[in-house]
Specification:
alpha/beta
Length: 522
């Protein structure tokens, strides 16, 4: 009798666990959203969008990327794989091949954009491998974002660079589905564009004060406002989508179509939809976190999300969906804001001066292969031809780099390969270091400093809280409304979602499952 009762209890537990598995998981990645943005602008949010998620979901208030290289490709790869850059190998959009001295592009290949150089499996890949009937859809404004979140295979779409249409590549599919083709022929994305971008609310309701005159005309030039600050005017429809809230609207509208066309969440086999809102990042970079443009973008996104969430839970069978809202990183203060504005780091000048320094030390030559996103690659072939010790040259350059304005830390590749840093700035730099790809010398800039790029006033890529700390919310079927204040590493997202789906975590995953989400869902 006891044995029968135990078996019945085990069977009931198994049924409960199976029922708890969501039919659809939707990941929404808002580009460059800081952790504090949701609270800062909450007073002007409606009840059905961002406030619905924050008040009805499990919110982690101290979620962070635990590495220095908080740039979009690196962070998206971390989010998708559950691994640090030191494990998943994505250290930026490009790097240098030390054998050929050629530049390697992360997502470029013979069959069009694709996951050619991703070495760690993503959540989407893992779901399809363990549940072959599962459908995975990934959509982003930019190809690189979509590819990094999707990985190898699946239904992957982004905006093309010519006609402002939805596109994929032969790496994923030889042709687009008919429903996307029809949408492209009708130029549906253009319906989201307005002649001008004006504030959604009355002026008195905005907290930010910079750039009140929001006007984006289709002109490729910079104008000066009263403060002398230049504003970017997009050259074409694609840039108007990428640099205005219209892009977020188009992405979420496409996501709604994907739910219907792929019948996501309509059967017992779990599906995955991932949406990366790249326009939010572009707006943050162009105008800065202190701007009305960024604030207005959030209010418009709030309305778009309210519409999307209503549609999502109406379409998914029994409303059995889980939504995860987070970001790829935060963003720096605008370099020209505040009483003591920061300066910008001139990367090209840094390259030239370092090469000149090595010319003086070791003779004339092309010593520097290139610099990209705080990493400097040296010419190994030339170093070996001259009979020099690579580690000594790396360490000399790292020491020399510390003399530059704006540089707070510099570590050589040798130091990160041969030492273990358990704490402090060096640990964060080492977490973002992948020996086969990372530069010979990696820099961290001082707080507030960013690399000089035309039209960019705010950027990510540092170890500071404004870059590393992001919102993280789980909402939906079985998720309890509560706030969790303990520190959380963003490598936890992928394995947590895998646990919800009842599958094993991605092979390279290092994250710890968030038990608060799991316990409330069972």
């Amino acid at each position: 009798m006891k044995k029968r009762i135990i078996l019945l209890l085990l069977a009931a537990a198994a049924l409960t666990t199976a029922a708890a598995r969501p039919r659809l998981i939707v990941q929404i990645v808002v580009g460059s959203m800081r952790a504090g943005d949701l609270e800062r602008y909450a007073a002007n949010f409606g009840d059905g969008g961002l406030k619905r998620l924050t008040e009805g979901g499990t919110c982690y208030t101290d979620a962070r990327y635990d590495c220095m290289q908080t740039t979009t490709p690196v962070s998206l790869a971390t989010l998708a794989t559950g691994a640090m850059p030191s494990m998943h190998g994505v250290i930026g959009p490009t790097w240098r091949d030390y054998t050929s001295n050629e530049t390697v592009f992360l997502t470029e290949g013979k069959r069009g954009p694709g996951a050619y150089h991703l070495i760690a499996p993503t959540l989407a890949e893992t779901l399809r491998a363990q549940c072959p009937e599962s459908r995975t859809v990934t959509v982003a404004a930019e190809a690189e974002s979509a590819i990094l979140l999707a990985g190898k295979g699946g239904n992957v779409f982004w905006l093309d660079t010519g006609r402002c249409n939805w596109a994929t590549s032969p790496y994923y599919a030889e042709e687009l589905p008919d429903w996307i083709g029809r949408s492209n022929r009708e130029h549906y994305n253009l319906s989201f564009l307005a002649e001008e971008w004006r504030t959604l609310l009355d002026r008195a309701r905005y907290r930010n004060t910079r750039h009140w005159d929001i006007t984006l005309a289709a002109r490729n030039r910079r104008e000066k406002d009263e403060a002398g600050k230049g504003r970017l005017h997009p050259a074409d429809d694609l840039e108007r989508l990428r640099c205005t809230p219209a892009g977020n609207s188009a992405l979420l509208a496409f996501a709604k179509q994907a739910i219907a066309q792929y019948r996501l969440g309509t059967d017992e086999v779990p599906d995955l939809l991932t949406v990366c809102l790249d326009p939010a990042r572009r707006i943050m970079e162009t105008y800065g976190p202190e701007s009305v443009e960024v604030e207005d973008m959030y209010y418009r996104l709030d309305r778009d999300l309210a519409d999307f969430l209503t549609y999502l839970f109406a379409q998914v069978r029994d409303g059995d969906a889980v939504v995860v809202l987070t970001s790829d990183h935060g963003s720096s203060p605008s370099f020209d804001a505040g009483p003591a504005p920061a300066e910008r780091f001139n990367a090209r000048q840094f390259e030239v001066i370092v090469n000149g320094f090595l010319n003086v030390r070791y003779g004339m030559g092309n010593w520097v292969l290139g610099y990209e996103e705080r990493s400097l690659w040296l010419n190994h072939n030339l170093i070996y031809e001259r009979g020099l010790d690579l580690s000594e040259v790396q360490n000399e350059v790292a020491t020399f780099a510390m003399q530059f304005d704006g540089v707070s830390h510099a570590l050589s590749s040798t130091a990160m390969r041969t030492s273990y840093f358990g704490s402090g700035y060096a640990r964060l730099m080492q977490n973002g270091f992948y020996p086969r790809r990372s530069g010979d010398v990696v820099l961290n800039l001082m707080p507030g400093w960013i690399e000089e790029r035309d039209g960019v006033v705010s950027a990510s890529g540092s170890m500071y809280g404004y870059d590393t700390r992001v919102p993280l919310i789980f909402y939906g079927a079985g998720i309890l409304p509560r706030q969790i204040d303990r520190p959380v590493d963003m490598t936890a997202v992928a394995p947590t979602l895998c646990r919800l789906l009842g599958i094993e975590a991605p092979a390279a995953s290092e994250g710890t499952v968030l038990e608060e989400v799991i316990s409330s869902n069972i």
